């Protein structure tokens, strides 16, 4: 892959203005009372669009790497200017691939080897060739039993049974005949009108003499004379739904589209083409798409996603026949490459939202994360947003690829208004969902965004269509990025992904009561990010560097290094006068030549956010591509005997062309965890008490069982004897030293039902180190919670205690749940 120019300037203004002239915007005025169910107002999207109606994402493509996107879902059919919303659909899994065989007409019908017949093909607008060896006709069958493992979709045409079959034909027809009968293609026409790059691409695509057509017997009646030929979705936005001929009340449960890829043998003879049907049989992707870019979701005026003017493309990576819509590394790579290629071929800025991931074995040391770092280093115009994971509230639970340095990872924020309107909960303050993964060895999440929403779903999804998770937070951030790119494009500003990430973090609003490892920079704020992005775009220095690669000693990584200082070790963290040394290197823009890199110089001023975190040298500099070392020290007098503290050292450009928040180049994260070491002096037990634990919040306690312990029993009490009242309640989650949940789910402790819950950790799960006891109050609690938590270990003969520099290496090959 070749390097691209600095934050390529995309010619999107002309299209946006033409569209605006043709159609009245539906998002130009702030509603008096914004819809609370899709809370893009939390990130400032409603005020942003009211102030700048055309900066609503138009001219920008959001690529949804997920389970698919349903083009029939109300809210995913049009942009704010009335134009087409969904521009391309591709399935990179095997779920949508259906086998085809060559067939020839017999007595006016095409017959599949299994006996299915299709008649009436001769009456189609473009009929299949009758006898052309060079261009055979292929036939396949869509069958409902293939969806047996897909919840709520075994009956794909909603006719009351699960055994229907729908035959289809595939053939290559002369382009002239196709375009005469079906038109040149609305999709290609739109793309060709965007800019010179897109026009040249479309012209090349139209040079082929043949066009693939697919005709599906959508009602299963064995006839095609009432059907229409379909082209690749990108060409004319062709969609179809399956229906039953004898079920007039059946619903269209989801939208289908198709793409065909020609194949040939080594001699050039045609082989069976690859026929891939795209659909969202999982609903997760459509839901994320609506949060990012939905326009009039559910047909409701004013109910929009974050960037309702943006276009969408669907790059399906989740195979819904598998548990959780699982994906594979190579599938993700193909989807990312397609999204990059789409932007380059059509000259458009592309933002990816991938609300997918798995638990990290070693944070920041995964193959897909490193591959993405390399991809983004070569493609500065390409931005990737992802979910931070749903394994919280424990520390060190960020998933992959969220831990990748170059990606923008979002945690799941919960406002008081969302708590009230989506959950009928009265929250005392804004907070984070308990499930939202927290950082540790890596500086994640980068930001937080609303983690719950009503959004767009396929027709087969019944009920509230309200999902929650960091999966819902990431598309809010992706929509915010689309709005920023839309503004930059219309202002003629060049930006790259490093500027966007930097602007989101520096322009975010810190959420009171949340720690650094919980919220990163804070709640996404589009206006605040723009106030940082604009000066960055006008700065020469910001164009030179995409990001900064940070490395520091970390005892929890197999190579001893990570991108954040994280000390959770028996014996304690290194404290002053001992130092912790960060190594920082620039990640240059690919357009910088060898001489520019060699002459590169940058000076920084450092500022600590906490008194316990001390910077040894207030100023440091980088010259060329050599690493800069920054030493910090921890003041033992200001560290808690038990608990966790987390803070940043902020590096600001010194003497350059930027000032204020825009001058913040990078942060150095530091987290120190201290636990109570139990032993014979206290009966191998310790007790933690808490009062006034508010709804949807949690408190952390840390204990270090003795070396040689054979069991650790953890108990949580929420009783009237402790002062708890009806409506209070809490759950206890126990995390091992590496962040994995242990001991299973014991339920909620409530004074009126089960005032005490407990669980026991046994070997091999029980291991040396500092364990985390998270006490979490339910979102629906009606009263604050007073509690007592107790941990007691059972010890056998003592063994040598772990070293203060104990290194955790036992994490490899331990499967965990998906972060979806």
The gist of it:
The protein is α+β, with helices and mostly antiparallel strands. It is built from 16 helices and 42 strands.
Structural write-up:
This protein is α+β, with helices and mostly antiparallel strands and 820 residues long. The protein folds into four domains: 7-96 and 282-538, 3-Layer(aba) Sandwich (Rossmann fold), CATH 3.40.50; 97-198 and 207-278, no CATH class; 544-673, Immunoglobulin-like; 676-795, Sandwich (Jelly Rolls). Helices cover 19% and strands 29% of the residues. It contains 16 helices and 42 strands. Strand 6 (109-111) and strand 7 (117-119) form a beta hairpin. The two termini are 31 Å apart.
Notable features of this structure?
Rossmann fold; single chain; disordered C terminus; 6-stranded mixed beta sheet; alpha+beta; 820 residues; 42 strands; Immunoglobulin-like
Going by helix content, strand content and strand pairing, the class is: alpha+beta
Gyration radius (Cα, Å) is 28 Å
Low-confidence stretches: 1-25, 799-820
Largest sheet: 8 strands, mixed
For CATH, the homologous superfamily of the largest domain is named as Peptidase S8/S53 domain
Identify the CATH architecture of the largest domain.
Answer: 3-Layer(aba) Sandwich
Helix content: 10-25%
CATH topology of the largest domain: Rossmann fold
Number of helices: 16
Strand content: 25-35%
Distance between the termini: 31 Å
Shape: globular
The CATH class name of the largest domain reads Alpha Beta
Number of strands: 42
Averaged pLDDT, please?
A: 91
Count of distinct structural domains: 4
């Amino acid at each position: 892959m070749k390097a691209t120019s600095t934050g390529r300037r995309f010619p999107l203004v002309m299209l946006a203005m033409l569209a605006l002239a043709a159609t009245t915007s539906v998002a130009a005025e702030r509603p008096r009372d914004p819809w609370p169910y899709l809370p893009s107002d939390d990130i400032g999207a409603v005020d942003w669009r009211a102030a700048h109606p055309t900066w609503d994402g138009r001219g920008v493509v959001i690529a949804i790497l997920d389970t698919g996107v349903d083009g029939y879902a109300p809210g995913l059919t049009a942009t704010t200017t009335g134009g087409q919303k969904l521009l391309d659909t591709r399935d990179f899994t095997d779920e949508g691939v259906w086998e085809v065989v060559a067939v020839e007409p017999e007595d006016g019908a095409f017959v599949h080897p299994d006996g299915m017949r299709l008649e009436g093909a001769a009456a189609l607008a473009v009929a299949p060739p009758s006898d052309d060896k060079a261009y055979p006709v292929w036939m396949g069958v869509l069958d409902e039993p293939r969806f047996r493992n897909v919840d709520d979709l075994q009956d794909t045409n909603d006719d009351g049974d699960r055994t229907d079959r729908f035959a289809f034909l595939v053939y290559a027809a002369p382009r002239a005949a196709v375009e005469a009968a079906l038109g040149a293609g609305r999709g290609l026409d739109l793309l060709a009108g965007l800019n010179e790059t897109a026009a040249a691409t479309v012209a090349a695509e139209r040079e082929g003499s043949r066009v693939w057509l697919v005709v599906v017997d959508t009602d299963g009646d064995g006839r095609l004379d009432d059907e229409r030929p379909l082209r690749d979705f990108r060409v004319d936005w062709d969609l179809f739904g399956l229906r039953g001929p004898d079920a007039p009340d059946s619903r269209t449960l989801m939208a289908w589209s198709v793409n065909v890829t020609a194949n040939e043998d080594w001699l050039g003879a045609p082989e069976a083409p690859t026929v891939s049907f795209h659909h969202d049989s999982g609903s997760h992707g459509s839901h994320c798409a609506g949060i990012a870019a939905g326009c009039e979701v559910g047909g409701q005026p004013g109910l929009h996603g974050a960037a309702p003017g943006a276009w969408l493309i669907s790059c399906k990576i989740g195979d819904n026949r598998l548990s959780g819509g699982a994906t594979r590394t190579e599938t993700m790579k193909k989807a990312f490459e397609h999204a990059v290629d789409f932007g380059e071929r059509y000259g458009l800025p592309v933002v990816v939202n991938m609300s997918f991931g798995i638990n990290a074995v070693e944070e920041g040391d995964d193959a897909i994360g490193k591959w993405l770092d390399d991809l983004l280093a070569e493609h500065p115009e390409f931005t990737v947003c992802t979910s931070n994971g749903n394994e919280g509230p424990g520390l060190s639970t960020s998933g992959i690829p969220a831990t990748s340095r170059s990606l923008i990872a979002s945690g799941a924020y919960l406002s008081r208004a969302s708590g009230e309107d989506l959950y009928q909960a009265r929250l005392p303050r804004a907070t984070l969902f308990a499930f939202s993964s927290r950082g540790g060895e890596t500086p994640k999440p980068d930001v937080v965004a609303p983690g719950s929403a009503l959004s767009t779903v396929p027709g087969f999804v019944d009920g509230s269509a309200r999902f929650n998770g960091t999966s819902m937070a990431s598309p809010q951030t992706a929509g915010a990025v689309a709005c920023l790119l839309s503004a930059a494009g219309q202002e003629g500003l060049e930006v790259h992904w490093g500027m966007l990430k930097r602007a989101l973090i520096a322009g975010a609003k810190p959420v009171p009561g949340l720690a650094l490892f919980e919220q990163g920079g804070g709640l996404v704020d589009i206006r605040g990010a723009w106030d940082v992005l604009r000066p960055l775009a006008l700065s020469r220095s910001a164009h030179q560097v995409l990001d900064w690669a940070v490395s520091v000693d970390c005892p929890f990584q197999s190579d001893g290094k990570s991108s954040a200082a994280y000390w959770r070790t028996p014996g304690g963290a290194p404290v002053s006068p001992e130092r912790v040394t960060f190594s920082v290197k620039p990640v240059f823009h690919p357009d910088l030549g060898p001489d520019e890199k060699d002459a590169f110089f940058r000076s920084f001023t450092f500022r600590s956010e906490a008194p316990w975190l001390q910077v040894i040298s207030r100023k440091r500099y980088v010259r060329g591509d050599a690493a800069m070392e920054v030493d910090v020290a921890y003041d033992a007098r200001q560290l808690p005997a038990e608990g966790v503290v987390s803070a940043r050292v902020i590096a600001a450009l010194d003497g350059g062309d930027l000032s204020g928040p825009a001058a913040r180049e990078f942060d150095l994260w530091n987290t120190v965890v201290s636990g109570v070491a139990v032993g014979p002096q206290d009966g191998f037990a310790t007790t933690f008490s808490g009062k006034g634990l508010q709804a949807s919040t949690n408190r952390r306690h840390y204990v270090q069982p003795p070396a040689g312990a054979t069991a650790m029993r953890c108990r949580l009490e929420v009783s009237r004897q402790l002062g708890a009242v009806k409506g209070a309640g809490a759950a206890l989650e126990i995390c091992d030293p590496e962040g994995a949940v242990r001991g299973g789910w014991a339920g909620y402790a409530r004074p009126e039902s089960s005032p005490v819950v407990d669980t026991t950790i046994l070997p091999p799960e029980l291991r040396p180190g500092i364990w985390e006891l998270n006490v979490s109050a339910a979102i629906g609690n009606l009263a604050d919670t007073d509690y007592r938590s107790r941990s007691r270990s059972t010890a056998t003969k003592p063994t040598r205690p772990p070293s203060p520099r104990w290194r955790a290496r036992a994490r490899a090959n331990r499967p965990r749940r998906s972060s979806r």
